[in-house]
Specification:
Length: 358
Amino acid sequence: MGRTVGLLVGVMFAVLVVYLLLWPVPIEPTSWTAKEPPPLAGDFAPNRVLQGMELFSTPNAHGPEDVAIDAEGVAYVGVHEGQILRYSPDGASVEVFAQTGGRPLGLDFDNDGNLIVADAFKGLLSIDPDGKTTVLCNEAGYHPLGYTNDVDVDSQNVAWFSDSSSKWNQHQTMNEVLENAPNGRLLKYDINTDECDVVLSEFHFANGVAVSPDETYVLVNETMRYRTKRVFVRGPRAGRVEVFVANLPGFPDGISTGADGIFWLAMYGPRNAVLDSASDRPWLRKIIHRIPSALQQKPARHPFVLGLDAEGKVVHNLQDVEGARFSVTSSAEQVGDWLHVGSLLEPSWGRIRVSTLP
């Protein structure tokens, strides 16, 4: 009997090994070499600053990826359920403002008071003050938008936005993460002329977008390379691309332009040692893909936001190493003295006073 059981266990183990090594997967991972992540010390020293956030719930919904504040101080967030929720200035009341039918991610207001939405499935949308939704752009460069992610509107009414992947959609995010191929794009939509154009391609998971204070360049987070690129779009350096900050200690998600030239960069969480070690081992990333999602490592509950100056130097380091009340930070937007923080997964968003930050 024991011998039979041992044989059965051996066969099951062999089947598992064959599955992990040979089962077909839809991804073709690229090979690169991730640098050793910087230690959580110095500029990145662990702290609990974000435990001081005031939190606002998203009733019967979750994942307020981004927060946009209108001229009256009213807050808008987009949630996983496809809704845009609208909060009173004090956050005491909340209502459904619109339903996109997709997954609203990045939000910003244009110069006419319309809410511009980067919807992962519907493309770039405009929602007027009455909640009427219009599709502005769902293809560019003869290719449909596959994973519209973040948007920032400048003073000339040009919406700069990211398409994270031309190959995978938001439901297939792990495919994009594990493949780590240059499938992302930076695009622009001119609201005045109704023109949608590709600015730059070949980003490794193009994510957060922020227009510089002088509007000569756009910052784009490249999530799966742990860096932010600076793309010059106006002036004598137009067309030039350079790395703004590299080898971040986490996965950069959203980025925004705050006061005094500070850029607020939200990181999904600290880097994953397994993914780092698999960077130059495409075969290992295929094995990871074959592991059922229920058994894969979950993101650490470690909200992480950095304030960077125009040279990419850290001027604010906001964390909660315990993840006591919040996690998976996806955006940080400053309006006045408030920094509003979104999350891809939490049933709430938060805010904290900038004047109280260390």
